[in-house]
């Protein structure tokens, strides 16, 4: 299912692809989910057994908190809300193919934007931790003549991070599209197992990898 938006603004035609529209849908889903969780937490009583919904949310928060502590360190637990938001966005976006929508992460503009967020957070905390001179000194280590390579390596991080996620999700979309075209009415018989791999397994795996690399990059910059 494709939802493209075409409009005119100041005499210029603007085309918004379905992947960007789907990313907005994911954000709306996450916003509604956050409002529901907030409302249920406010109404919850400490004297009563929490609902199954709040138990699931609590387990999810605890798992992400534990992952942040083990990867970045206990002193960086304040990153947990951002990592949890990133995990939920990527997980829903990667699994969008299961409901007939184009996954937002199959668009490079989406994955590159997420990678840029990681890149700028890494540079900000590196600058904040090391100071002005220390930040630039980091590029000269272990030897000064390696500075150009260190700079290129730092600039390559968002590119490799974004291409890894984009390539894996897009390849799954292309393969499933070709199979549906080739099999026709027989597709529902043979494609479920492939959806389990390309959408569920690959989607969850890429969510984990992107989130882990984000924590490693930012945590390494702060250390």
From TrEMBL:
Localisation per UniProt entry: Cell membrane; Membrane
GO cellular component: plasma membrane; proton-transporting ATP synthase complex
Keywords noted in UniProt: ATP synthesis, Cell membrane, CF(0), Hydrogen ion transport, Ion transport, Membrane, Transmembrane, Transmembrane helix, Transport
Cross-referenced SUPFAM superfamilies: F1F0 ATP synthase subunit A (SSF81336)
Membrane topology, as annotated: Multi-pass membrane protein
InterPro entries: ATP_syn_F0_a_bact/chloroplast (IPR045082), ATP_synth_F0_asu (IPR000568), ATP_synth_F0_asu_AS (IPR023011), F0_ATP_A_sf (IPR035908)
Residues spanning the membrane: 20-37, 79-102, 108-127, 165-190, 196-218
Entry function: Key component of the proton channel; it plays a direct role in the translocation of protons across the membrane.
Protein name in the entry: ATP synthase subunit a
Organism: Anaerosalibacter massiliensis
């Amino acid at each position: 299912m494709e939802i493209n938006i075409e409009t005119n603004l100041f005499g210029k035609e603007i085309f918004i692809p379905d992947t960007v529209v789907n990313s907005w849908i994911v954000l709306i889903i996450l916003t509604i989910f956050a409002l529901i969780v907030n409302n249920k937490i406010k109404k919850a009583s400490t004297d009563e057994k929490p609902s199954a919904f709040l138990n699931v949310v609590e387990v999810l928060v605890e798992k992400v908190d534990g992952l942040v502590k083990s990867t970045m360190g206990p002193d960086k637990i304040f990153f947990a809300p951002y990592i949890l938001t990133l995990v939920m966005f990527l997980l829903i976006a990667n699994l969008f193919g299961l409901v007939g929508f184009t996954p937002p992460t199959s668009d490079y503009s989406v994955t590159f934007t997420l990678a840029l967020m990681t890149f700028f957070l890494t540079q900000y905390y590196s600058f904040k931790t090391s100071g002005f001179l220390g930040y630039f000194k980091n590029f000269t280590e272990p030897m000064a003549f390696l500075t150009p390579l260190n700079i290129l390596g730092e600039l390559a991080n968002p590119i490799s991070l974004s291409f890894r996620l984009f390539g894996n999700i897009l390849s799954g979309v292309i393969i499933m599209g070709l199979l549906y075209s080739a099999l026709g009415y027989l597709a529902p018989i043979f494609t479920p197992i492939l959806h389990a791999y390309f959408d569920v397994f690959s989607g969850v795996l890429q969510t984990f990898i992107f989130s882990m690399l984000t924590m490693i990059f930012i945590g390494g910059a702060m250390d």
